[in-house]
# Entry
Amino acid sequence: MSPTAPNRLRVDGRFLSLGDERLFLKGVTFGPFPDGRALDPGEEFPRLAECGFNAVRVYTGADDHLLDCAEDNGLVVMAGIPWQWTRDFLAEPRLRTEGEMRLLEFLRAHGSHGALGALLVANEIPSDLVRWMGPVEVREAIEDLIDLCRAECGDDLLLAYANYPSTEYLEPRNADFTAFNVYLENREALQRYLPRLQNIAGDRPVLITEFGLDTIRHSEAEQDELISAHLDACLGAGMAGTTLFAWSDRWASRGREMTDWAFGLTRDDRSEKPALESLRGRLPALASARDGFSLQGAPRVSVVVCTFNGAAILADCLRACLALDYPDFEVLVVDDGSTDGTAEVVSRFPAVRYLRQEHGGLSVARNHGARAGTGELIAYTDDDCEPDRDWLYWIARAFEEPGTAAAGGPNLPPQPGGIQEAVVAVAPGAPSHVLLGDLNAEHLPGCNLVVRRSALAAIGGFRSQYFAAGDDVDLCWRLLDDGWNLAFVPAAFVWHRRRTTLLRYLRQQSGYGRAEALLYEAHPGRFDKGGIAWHGSVYGGGALSVDPHAVIYFGAMGLAGYQGLEHHGIPRRLPDRRFDTRIVHLLVRMCELVQPLVRALSRWRHGGPGPRLLPRRPDRRKYADDLREEIECHFLGAAGTGRFQLLADLRARGWTPCGDSEPWDLERAPYRVLTTDEDHGPDCTLVRVRLLHPPGLRRAGLDMIKVAALEAGLEPL
# Structure
């Protein structure tokens, strides 16, 4: 069945849309069911739709009957295809090949069906197995699967990996959206964690792909209350949607019926739990995320666009500003002495107030706009930006906190118009937010910066010496020094088209260097020998994911419930797929080499700190591990017997846990050991053990492991 392109699920900035209509994805999982007791989509999907759900997640693929029933009821299907990702598929290539074949077979049979909205290439690869195989290697394998599926189905179908907090560092960089299974029963913890996911995701939307509560260990009333709180948290955090686990208590895992869990919204006999009745009264009214909340008195906002000779790009910006969906705002253009047709462009938009000044620079223009505006909030964006229609709605919510002086969100690149623009969109040096926490910023770029009028007046506005850049950095630092908070709002994004040629890009970077020299004069304590010494993390639009230089917090023996990156570089976005070519990557690499030099030399030439021309040399010392060797051995255990029992026995024999960021479980000088469990069916667990040992002490180390394994109930293979 061939769909019409406008009705396919697609990425829409930080959200998802169905065709041209933005939606909040309201999903529920369906199956897998016990043998002989499957629920019929023809009977159940009308019930889902009547309750307000618009999506369904399945784990074992989908046949034509399920997809047709979904399409008939207006449901988007998020499909998963089972393959053996709970085993070491890197050591056994046939497992990976089988997974690739199953994914491709499904896409060839159903990839063009109108109800199919997304394919999840795998689900929750166990954290101990990821640590065993190597986080970078596993991330690359997931990315290869996504590339393989995309080559088969094109860009019409969204592709992602269903991650979870124990491997949050595993985000594939080429996924269309970030998908996370999250089970948090504490409301405050959930409200804190969702903004973290927004920052892990970079530019892309975040979709919760599993959330639920078991009604055997908890009451049905508790399930009802928690799901309502979860929905509130997802809406408030600007999630693209959420998926409740599960539709029914009738459920099977690995071929075995699960009778000791009851996560369903309906019971085994298909009767409804209280949570479903509550959802029926709420979900139908939630078309998009912003429908879940009303503003506490919408403050008037003055949208100020400062421009100098921007006639060629200004019209698109003004159309987007006038299309903002917000109850009380005005749009002002401050013309900083343009000599092109800027005035004529603005005249086409009667609703826009036009202000002209002699050419005095960006800071003077920003102050002019603030004085002329009538809003309680002054919202600054640039003439090469197009704010999202819900921009002011999300921003205004941040100012409900009286200590917030300024707020802003991400600036996302639109589709590039050519190779050079595609390179610049991912090159270093872009205007970026710098975060001190998931919702608190050290810097908000001026292309997406909203300031409380009273706070702006209290610090004297923008400083006029910042003629073309640096004004936003100076303003943010002065607000922080005065004790104000800068709020980061992940859902409040603008589309920002950066320089369209490499020459203009390098000129811009030189200008940024000149601005940094001015900043150094005003704020010398915020610089080191290499430039600005940010206290927070700089974000560059890419997904926050493991790389060869990252340091991962695993927790002792890899058992932390939330495992993430402790230290990482700036995660920059990947090139637009239409321009993902060798020449583009070569030009990006050139920018990576040239941009820091251009910026540093300009900063130095204008009075700032000198450039650091030579990189720091790596430490060439030999560490103890470099002199040791590795060997692997395997053990077999019954259901419920695995690495935990082995590690417990080793600890009883004097082995101690390694550090929280170490890729090893236990150590007992001169040995180290790493373990993982492999799923070999409901009744059998394979335990893999890797021993690090001095060259002459292999047998003694293996003997210690074997004795402990036998004591733990494991049989050697």
Summary: Confidence is low (pLDDT under 50) at residues 1-6, 618-624.
